[in-house]
């Protein structure tokens, strides 16, 4: 894809392990045509020693889409950057924010913030072999390090290697004592750190991630930074992507939920024909589409019940949507 024609990163959906697979990304693209989409984190080892098509396959409709890499060895990152370009991705994002113990054992993720020079070497190695933009997603501190100079120094070092876009998850990462889920909730959000980074590095693109869930909150942050990245709220309440697309990208955007369902039926049919993809691999991402509507419980039940999904055809998505708005007795009969 012509990178000159890509939309800005004003709105993006975060990389989320076990959630933002290619089926989820296709769904999100139908909802938000201009949002940047990110893969789940893929480790360099998985690409260099595993099933490359399984990890890198994506649909043309997903553009703009970024591959998020987990790794620390510059040579390995460089080879994976070449693969990303060969497969047609629009961006390579280096994960310097994941705090999980498994990632720490691999010596990458959030612990890399302790080694900004190594991150810079990885960025430089990737930029040497690809024309794709190389970006970095990181935290604002590690454990109890809350000194602004720490994250300032990290960005100063890494940007000198040619990285011009930083996605700032505005919490510290606690490497010991908290689970990944707790790391997304317990360390306090400090948006002012991202604001200060943008002031200190006006030439860089600074995107803000962490805790954003409403259009008003995002609009407020966009007064201070270049873009917002939304995580769990986008996945759990996907219809909100319509509102955010309209607010920040295309004021005329106004598709119906029925049109989204039709799009996913078509997608599921192609996936079944071309790749043998079972409907359950796709339907799980749609469960939040009916949130707040009468019949939402029946919709979710039909699309998550193994009995309904066993050998199910794509038309099941429309059958489930038909439960929305029906009287409770009719919904119960159908379920």
From TrEMBL:
GO molecular function: tRNA-dihydrouridine20 synthase activity
Descriptive protein name: tRNA-dihydrouridine(20/20a) synthase
UniProt keyword annotation of Cell cycle present: no
Record organism: Uliginosibacterium flavum
Family: Belongs to the dus family.
Enzyme class: oxidoreductase
Role description: Catalyzes the synthesis of 5,6-dihydrouridine (D), a modified base found in the D-loop of most tRNAs, via the reduction of the C5-C6 double bond in target uridines. Specifically modifies U20 and U20a in tRNAs.
Gene3D superfamilies: 1.20.120.1460, Aldolase class I
Keywords: Flavoprotein, FMN, NADP, Oxidoreductase, RNA-binding, tRNA processing, tRNA-binding
Residues annotated as catalytic: 98
Domain of life of the source: Bacteria
Catalytic activity: 5,6-dihydrouridine(20a) in tRNA + NADP(+) = uridine(20a) in tRNA + NADPH + H(+); 5,6-dihydrouridine(20) in tRNA + NADP(+) = uridine(20) in tRNA + NADPH + H(+); 5,6-dihydrouridine(20a) in tRNA + NAD(+) = uridine(20a) in tRNA + NADH + H(+); 5,6-dihydrouridine(20) in tRNA + NAD(+) = uridine(20) in tRNA + NADH + H(+)
Keyword rRNA-binding: no
EC number: 1.3.1.91
Site (Interacts with tRNA): 95, 181, 184, 297, 300
Domain DUS-like FMN-binding, first and last residues per copy: 13-316
HAMAP family membership: DusA_subfam
């Amino acid at each position: 894809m012509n990178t000159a024609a890509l939309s800005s990163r004003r709105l993006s959906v975060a990389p989320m392990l076990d959630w933002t697979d290619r089926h989820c990304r296709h769904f999100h693209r139908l909802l938000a045509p201009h949002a940047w989409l990110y893969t789940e984190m893929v480790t360099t080892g998985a690409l260099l020693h595993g099933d490359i098509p399984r990890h890198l396959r994506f649909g043309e409709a997903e553009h703009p889409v970024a591959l998020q890499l987990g790794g620390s060895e510059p040579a390995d990152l460089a080879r994976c950057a070449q693969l990303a370009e060969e497969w047609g991705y629009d961006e390579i994002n280096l994960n310097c924010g994941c705090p999980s113990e498994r990632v720490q054992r691999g010596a990458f993720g959030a612990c890399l913030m302790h080694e900004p020079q190594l991150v810079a070497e990885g960025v430089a190695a990737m930029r040497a072999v690809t024309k794709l933009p190389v970006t970095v997603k990181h935290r604002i501190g590690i454990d109890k390090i809350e000194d602004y100079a720490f994250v300032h120094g990290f960005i100063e070092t890494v940007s000198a290697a040619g990285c011009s876009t930083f996605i700032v998850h505005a919490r510290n990462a606690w490497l010991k004592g908290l689970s990944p889920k707790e790391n997304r909730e317990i360390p306090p959000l400090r948006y002012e750190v991202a604001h200060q980074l943008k002031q200190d590095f006006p030439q860089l693109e600074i995107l803000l991630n962490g805790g954003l869930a409403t259009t008003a909150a995002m609009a407020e942050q966009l007064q201070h930074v270049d873009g917002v990245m939304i995580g769990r709220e986008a996945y759990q309440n996907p219809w909100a992507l319509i509102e955010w697309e309209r607010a920040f990208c295309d004021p005329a955007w106004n598709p119906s939920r029925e049109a989204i369902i039709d799009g996913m039926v078509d997608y599921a049919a192609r996936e079944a024909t071309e790749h043998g993809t079972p409907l359950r691999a796709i339907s799980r991402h749609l469960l939040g589409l009916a949130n707040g509507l009468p019949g939402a419980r029946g919709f979710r039940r039909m699309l998550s019940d193994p009995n309904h999904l066993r050998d199910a055809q794509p038309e099941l998505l429309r059958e489930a949507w038909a439960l929305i708005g029906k009287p409770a007795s009719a919904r119960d009969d159908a379920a």
